[in-house]
Amino acid sequence: MSHEHVSNTKRIWFVFGLLSLITVVEVILGIYKPESLEFTFFIGLNLLNWIFYILTLVKAYYIVWAFMHMEGETSGLRWSVVSTVIFLVLYLLFILLTEGHYIYGVFKDSTIKWNF
Amino acid sequence: MEATVTTANNEEKTWGGGNEPLKASYGKMMMWFFIVSDALTFSGFLAAYGFSRFKFIETWPIADEVFTHFPFMHGSPQPMLYVALMTFILIFSSVTMVLAVDAGHHMKKTKVAVYMFLTIIGGLIFVGSQAWEWKNFIKGEYGAVETTGGSLLQFVDKEGHRVAIADFAVKLPEQREALSRSKTSWFMEDAQSLPPYTVAEVQAGFKARPDLLIRTEVLTAKKKKTILSREDSETRLGQAKYVVEGANLVRNEYGSKLFADFFFFITGFHGFHVFSGVIINIIIFFNVLLGTYEKRKSYEMVEKVGLYWHFVDLVWVFVFTVFYLV
Questions:
Q1: Could you tell me if B267 and B129 lie in one domain?
Q2: Chosen from B25, B86, B224, B321 to mutate, greatest number of chain A CBs within 10 A
Q3: Residues of A in contact with B321 (CB under 8 A)
Q4: Which of residues 174-233 of B touch A (CB under 8 A)?
Q5: Which residues of A touch B79 (CB under 8 A)?
Q6: Can you tell me the distance from the alpha carbon of B221 to that of B19, in angstroms, rounded to the nearest whole number?
């Protein structure tokens, strides 16, 4: 192991506090669902869901960077893992969600009725 | 030792092997790439969930109405709380895991063992919680009926509160008993156990209670389920074909059939990961106790299983958002 190891217990507990705090915020928002957020849309997604997704990505960042110690790896390893996943996931989501939305339109607008 | 912890090549032989351009040992790097592929499997599941949800966007069940159970709080619905607790348990077991890795870097055997043990306990509690959640999901709470067209009808009172089928269905005399092997020939058996009420019993009970209305799967602009008028309710109930109680892979009382399928597959696949993580952690825990890594002078094995364990936590963060929040 080339990089030396200083004890980072302090940082671990800080990240734990942060992740817990984010989860608490998510749960409170999920229980109360403020109308001003739920019914205001920004690029096809309501603000509440934007908040949920962004907080999820923040949590994921801290888990990977602090707990899985990605911040201590070389940038080569970092890029080969993270960029691969991000690119393929975005690609998969784009294709499947577009397709799902299209099929929704087909069911809604055409004479096919599947559920009545 | 050579097989698990490769040592850096000090002589400048680029193609001679033993190089570590990424400054990570072989095992650790392979764990990372396994995680990449596993992450893509989970992404496939979650993207497929998104696909089906977008396809049935107007009729998808509302998670807050489905997952409302909390231990010892029977009767009062508590959306989010139980799954939030499960999330905390998993995050905390992630913390003890990373503390074990940290202690391993300082070669503190006892500390590693204690933290590994706590991680295992956390994992077991999580799997147990998931089992309890599954039990509630499978058992169901109110019951519903399915029409010949495949849509699901639920029952509410005048205020819009859900009413369980058991509370209003009447008992009619002619009843078919479920076939069981003890009563018939060995090859005759009902594929599924019969629901406790027949469609006719539900319809008769509904007729006797004028305050009841039917709630369909269709979401309104305010993201609530549509409640029909009494006349429409009676017409729709006339098309009923099955009484659905609880959930299985064929149909469920919460709404879209795919909702239960994805719930079982995604949380099941995740729960399976947690379970195998616990098993691997136990193996490593015993290796720590036996002093295997003390002899190896490196606790990197703890770090590798730690990566896997954090990954399981990472997946749960996404499952939590996609299934319970959004």
A1: yes
A2: B321
A3: 26, 52-53, 55-56
A4: 222-223
A5: 30-31
A6: 60
- Cα A57 to Cα A51: distance, rounded to the nearest angstrom: 10
Residues B39 and B131 in one domain: yes
To the nearest whole Å, the CA of A116 is away from the closest chain B CA by: 5
**Inter-residue contact B287 to B301 (CB < 8 Å):** yes
Per-residue pLDDT of chain B (326 residues; tens, 9 = 90+): 445 555 555 556 677 777 777 888 888 999 999 999 999 999 999 999 999 999 998 889 988 888 888 887 776 778 888 999 999 999 999 999 999 999 999 999 999 999 999 999 999 999 999 999 999 999 988 999 999 888 899 999 988 888 998 888 888 876 666 667 777 676 766 656 667 788 888 999 999 988 899 999 888 888 888 888 888 889 889 988 889 988 989 889 998 899 999 999 999 999 999 999 999 999 999 999 999 988 988 888 999 999 999 999 999 999 999 999 88
Q: For residue B318, what are the domain limits?
A: 26-140+259-325
ipTM for the predicted complex comes to: 0.90
For residues B30 and B135, state if they share a domain. Answer: yes
Inter-chain residue contact B44 with A92, CB threshold 8 Å: yes
Please choose, from the candidates B130, B126, B67, the residue with its C-alpha nearest in 3D space to the C-alpha of residue B91.
B126
- The encoded tokens of residue B281 equal 């952690």
Q: How many domains does chain B have?
A: 2
Residue B67's CATH number: 1.20.120.80
**Minimal Cα–Cα distance from B17 to chain A, Å?**
17
Q: Which chain B residue has its CA at the smallest distance from A9's CA?
A: B99
Token digits of residue B61: 């069940």
Indicate if B61 and B120 belong to the same structural domain. yes
Nearest-5° Cα angle at B12, B8 to B15: 85
Domain-embedded: residue B203: yes
Neighbour count for residue B51 (Cβ, 10 Å): 21
Let me know whether B230 and B103 are in one domain. Answer: no
Three-state SS annotation for B238-294: HCEEEEECCECCCCECCCCHHHHHHHHHHHHHHHHHHHHHHHHHHHHHHHHHHCHHH
B180 within a domain of the structure (yes/no): no
Q: Any chain A CB within 8 A of the CB of B56? A: yes
Q: Is residue B306 part of a domain?
A: yes
Pair (B170, B77) in one structural domain: no
Q: How far is A41 from chain B (nearest CA, A)?
A: 13
